[in-house]
Amino acid sequence: MVSIVSVDINHDDRPDIIASFSLIYIGDEWPTEVEIRILYNNGDDTFTAQTIFNSTGDISIPDSIKVADVNGDNKLDIIISSLFSPEINIFVNSDNNTFTEVRKISLNGSEPGFKTVADLNDDTKPDIIVTKYGSEDISVLLNTDNGTFTDQMNYNTNCPPFAVTTADLNNNGKIDIIITCGREPRIIVFHNYNKGIFSANSSIYTNYPPEFVVAIDVNDDDKQDLVVTVLYPSLFAIYLNIGSEEFADPTIYEVDSPPSFFAAQDVDGDKKIDIILANLFGFHIFLNAGNGMFINSQRYPMYGSLVNIVINDMNADDQQDIILSSMNGIGIYYTHCD
Q1: What pTM does this model have?
Q2: Which residues of 13-42 are buried (b: 16+ CB within 10 A; e: fewer)?
Q3: 337: buried, middle or exposed (CB in 10 Å: 19+, 13-18, 0-12)?
Q4: 50 strand-pairing partners
Q5: Per the CB 3.0–4.6 Å rule, which of 224, 231, 250, 280 could disulfide with 237?
Q6: Pick from 49, 16, 19, 37: which is nearest to 314 by CA?
Q7: To the nearest whole percent, how much of the chain has pLDDT over 90?
Q8: Using 50, 70 and 90 to split pLDDT, how confident is the model at 193?
Q9: Residues facing 247 on adjacent strands
C-alpha cells in the first residue's frame, strides 16, 4: 500500500514526493513493515530518498498523507493517520529537513479514516478534519497556535463516513466540509457558518454510493462543483453547483473497472480542469470540453493496481505531470503537450 503527496518540502523550488509504504503479510504475524519516505527532486528526473520513519511488526498502517505548516515556522510538516490506531501523527519539519519530533493527537479511542487540512476559522492556521468510520462521525481539530490543536469537535454523520474534502460551496467566504457516506447513496455537507462551527449536515442524494469526492469549479462559473467516484458500477459523476446550496442532476461517465483515486487538474494547458482517474488496469484522462463536459481522450494501461494519483510539474517545463503509486511502487508520467 502506497500513499503519496507531491510538494516542495525543502524550499528548493522543485516538487518532491512524500510516500508511506506498508508491506502487509498474511499469516500468524499480520503485520506490517511501515516506512515513510521523502523523495527529494534533484532537478534531473532523479530523486534522493530519505526515510523519516520505519517500523516492523506494528499493525498501524498509514493511509493518507497530508502536508501543512502546522506551527507557523514556514516549514511544511507531515500529517499521517493510520488504520487501527486512534491517533494522528504530525512529523514536525525541523532544521535541515529532519523530522525527529513526532506530535501525537489522540482521537479518544476512535480510529481515523481519511482526513484533510484547511483553514476553517479564518485565522490563517491549518486545521484538521478527519472521518471516523466506526463511530459514524467526523472530528474537527482547530489549530490554536504553534501546532497545538483544540479538543476534537465531533459532528454526527448518521452513516459511516469515508472520504472528506473541503470547499466554499455556498460562496459565503467560509470553508465547508464535504464527505462521502459509506454504503449509502449520498454526499453529506456541513456548512460553516461561524469560524469553524458547523451547522447540522445536509445531504446531496446520489444514484449510487460514492467513494471519493473532490470539490472544484469544472465549468468556470465561480462555483465549486463536486466530482465523485463510484466503485460499483464503475463510474465517476459530475454534480454542477447551480447556487443556493443546490446541485444539478449528475452527468455520469463510465470506466472499465472500479476507480480508486482520482485528481482534478489542467493537464493539457487549456486552463480547464481535467479529470485523471486511476483504476485496476491503468489510468484514464478525461479532458474538459467546456461547460463541465468531459471527453475520455486516452487510457494508459499499467501493471499493478493503482493506489493513488497526484499531479504536479515535476521537471519545471510548465506542464502538469502525473505521479502514480501502485502495489509495485511509484511512477511518473511526464506530460508533453504541443
Answers
A1: 0.92
A2: ebbbbbbbbbeeeeeeeebbebbbbbbbbe
A3: exposed
A4: 38
A5: 250
A6: 16
A7: 59
A8: confident
A9: 241
The predicted structure's pLDDT at residue 243:
92
Q: What cell was used for 289?
A: 470540453
The answer to whether the CB of 141 falls within 8 A of the CB of 119 is no
Distance (Å, whole) CA 273 – CA 48: 31
- The sign of the CA dihedral 141, 147, 150, 151 is positive
Cell numbers 463510465 correspond to what residue? 254
Q: How many CA atoms lie within 13 A of 308 on its CB side?
A: 20
Q: What is the rounded end-to-end Cα distance, in angstroms, of the chain?
A: 35
Helices (H) and strands (E) in the chain, counts: 0, 33
Taking all residues of the chain, what is their mean pLDDT, rounded to a whole number?
A: 88
Phi-psi region of 158 (alpha: psi -120 to 50; beta: other; left: phi over 0): left
User: Helices in 221-271 by DSSP H: which ranges?
Assistant: none
C-alpha separations of 280 from 16, 92, 137, 277, 286 in Å: 26, 35, 30, 10, 17
Q: What is the pLDDT of residue 134?
A: 84
**Do the beta carbons of residue 213 and residue 204 sit within 8 Å?**
no
User: Rounded mean pLDDT of 289-312?
Assistant: 84
Other CB atoms within 10 A of residue 156 CB: 12
β-bridge pairing 47-56 and 61-68 = unpaired
pLDDT digits (tens, 9 = 90+) for 171-187: 999 999 999 987 899 99
Cα separation, 255 vs 3, whole angstroms: 23
Pairing of strands 321-326, 306-312: antiparallel
What is the pLDDT at residue 61?
61
